[in-house]
Write a structure and sequence with these properties.
Creatine Kinase, Chain A, domain 2; single chain; Ubiquitin-like (UB roll); about 450 residues; alpha+beta
Length: about 450
Amino acid sequence: MSTVQPRNDRMLTVEQLRSAILSDEIDTVVLGFTDMQGRLQGKLIHGRFFLDSVLGHGTEGCNYLLAVDVEMNTVDGYEISSWETGYGDMVFELDLSTIRRLPHRPGTALIQCDLALEDGTPVRVSPRAILRAQADRAAALGFTALAGTELEFVVYDTSYEDAWNSGYRDLVPANLYNVDYSILGSSRVEPLLRDIRNLMYAAGMDVESAKGECNLGQHEIAFKYAEVTTTADNHSVYKTTAKDIAQQRGKAITFMAKPNEREGNSCHVHMSLRGLDGSIVFWDEETGARTPLYDSFIAGVLRTMREFTLFYAPNINSYKRFAKGSFAPTAVAWGHDNRTCSVRLVGHGPSARMENRLPGGDVNPYLALAAMLAGGLHGVEQQLVLEPETQGSAYDSGAPTVPTTLREARDALAASDLARAAFGADVVAHYLNYADVELAAFESAVTDWELRRGFERL
């Protein structure tokens, strides 16, 4: 009998899963991992076969799953996988603390996985492994990292199939005007939002709230913070499941950073450290102020922000968010409760935390959390001094700016000795190739914008 404990009482132990399968309550076990693009990938396994052949041994999948573009095309340049190496397998290693029901899919449970080579060596370039390495680094320094991700999305009263067939033109947003904090606006979409909230709670997540946002049909569902790997796991499951629930209702959800010319989808990331015993390390209760450790952590995130931007903004479209007056940041700056800065400080005492406003809804949560944690720990280790706070609008502050294109971010990562020290040269090379593939695809594409401007008039 496994001694691995589930993360909470809404998730399942191995024995509870076994019992549910044997009683035909669960007939399908999904084994999933998160790929470079932030998507859940894996297999749907028959329950009895899972018990007989997979539970004790794991399963395999082609290693090209960490070496393809967003359209699943095999591409060159990855050391892990190629025609020359034969596109071999990697092993899905079951994390038995992550067994959860997927209530929107009857008879289905999900287990998230780590990845290893056939000889048991961890696949270091997998996003979950990259985050785990930084969490282990924090633990070695005496800290546990906590995080929460606030993920925005736009809802359309158009199915995914109809959106595809129309070339993503003339989509019908679920709200026809700005519904930021509007109870009426949220209520219009509440059947879908309620389904997502309740089904995610049943799947083992701690749901906080839903609220309207600024773009037409834009909303956000918030979840309680947790240990960083748990937060990334939940984020990945939620993002996939929300799309699935939407399609069951004939709707579509997009998490694109900038789906149109209005406000983009953000993914604000909140993070703090605690001692391994749960003690508060970011706040001094006697002085009622931040600790030097907290200041150094913030300084480290700022120091590495430009170099690590590729992990916060991984796609061509990501950079369309970064515009003056958009509530998306353009400046590498920090401030107290200042939404114009890339780093916003909020809370006090046990709730003291920093919010990284750079990532968009398209972010890979494992990579963003790993980058943020790596930067902060660099600041702690080097005892970096925090620069002065930005007062007023950071858009007009003259502070250094974040990269404005994927190519600029790619080149900043390529030049970063800090990144190689934090993540390893192999990880940096892998994600530089990811950026190169995206850039090559975009630069060879003929866009609607070009056709509209040039078909007749040029």
